[in-house]
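BUG: 3D viewer hangs when loading the predicted structure for this chain

Environment: internal workstation, default settings.
Expected: structure renders.
Actual: progress bar stalls at 90%.

Input used:
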Amino acid sequence: MARRGNPPRRQRSLPPLPEMRRVEVGPDGYDYDVRAVAASRAMKTYRCPGCDHEIKPGTAHLVVWPADLGESAVDDRRHWHTACWSNRATRGPTRTWS
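Structure tokens produced before the viewer hung:
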């Protein structure tokens, strides 16, 4: 008896990922682009300006930069813990510069 072959499965196209970027108003009144970084994509160590602690590789966090500079603001990007960015209006500076 001959084996019946299954037809090849069609690969379903996945829906596009939701945009992980948003614009928020900072405590200084300026607009900031905010983009979430998944833990699986966080490969480097950064220092959070909100708490002055390190953001270790493998930790989900946010990347924030001034909205008026667009995507070209590479030097102005800052990596924040999600909770630190959410509570930024109630925090003072964590580091004093001499």
